[in-house]
Structure formats: C-alpha cells, structure tokens
C-alpha cells in the first residue's frame, strides 16, 4: 500500500494574469522563468528613432501584465517574485485565461510583430489627433468617423479640407 505522503493529487495548470510594477514586465518574466515557472510576456517589435540611429526594440504588448501557467500550489511563489504586484482578479478569484487565447496572441505576434493594443474608448468623433506615421506624418486633424480599425480624419492644415483614412494605431490624441 502506498504511503499517503507520496500520493499527489493532480492539480491542472492554468494560465493566469499577473499585474506587475510599471515597466517591469520583461524583468518579471525573466525572474519567473529563473524559478522554473512557465510565464509569457508577449512583446511587440517597434522601431525607435534617435538622432544618430534607428533601433528595433521589443516592448510589452500589455503594459504591466504577464501571463503565468501554474497550478494553485505555485501561486505564492509567483506572488513573492520581485516586481509582481498581484494576480488580476475576476469575480473574486485570480483571472484564468484559456490556452487558446494565449495561442492566438502568440500567432498574432508571429504574423504581425508590430501589433499594438489600442483602447478604442479614448477616441471619439470630434477629437483632435496627430498622425504618427505615413505620408501625412505629424499632420493634425479632426476625427469625423470611426470604422473598425480605421479612422477618417479631416486634415485642416493644408489650406483645404482633405479627408484621409488612417489606421487607428497611427493616431495620437491631442489633449
């Protein structure tokens, strides 16, 4: 007969979301992996331009969030990791993420390495915006229509009214 202390009940691992200190996402991911914890910090590739060079850098896709694949017994180990603030909670419990969602994020970043998470709630018809890239780079205008992931903007600095469709991630809200 087996000793009860050697019998382990199988507790399934699940994906959870943890909240990190600002700008600590990649460091927390590294620290968790050093402890043997399966973690995932999705990153996007962005080209930063300085006066003397252009360099491609990796920035976290989600600010202050990292995903961990753990069983509940590893929760304390995650919590005490430097840079981890807490688990993200949903209905009083740590928020679980389906494996398929994690896989979709990974696949999306393989196809679109410069993908960006945008908050659509902050952009409304009538807002003043600046275009961040493309032929109309640095031009300012007013949002007249929002269509899924593109926005129609009136460019008013050209001494005429010119409307253009611009990807929403190419716009910066002017306060």
If you had to describe this structure to a student in words, what would you say it looks like?
The chain has 3 helices and 14 strands. The N and C termini lie far apart (72 Å). The longest helix is centred in the middle third of the chain and has 13 residues, at 99-111. The strands form 4 sheets. Strands 1, 2, 5, 6 and 9 form a 5-stranded antiparallel β-sheet that branches. It has a 5-stranded antiparallel β-sheet with strand order 13-12-11-10-14, with no helix packed on it. A two-stranded antiparallel sheet has the order 3-4. A hairpin with a 4-residue loop joins strand 3 (43-49) and strand 4 (54-60). The mean pLDDT is 82. Helices cover 16% and strands 38% of the residues. The protein has 175 residues and is of the alpha+beta class. It has 2 domains: 4-111, NusG, N-terminal domain (Alpha-Beta Plaits); 120-173, Roll (SH3 type barrels), CATH 2.30.30.
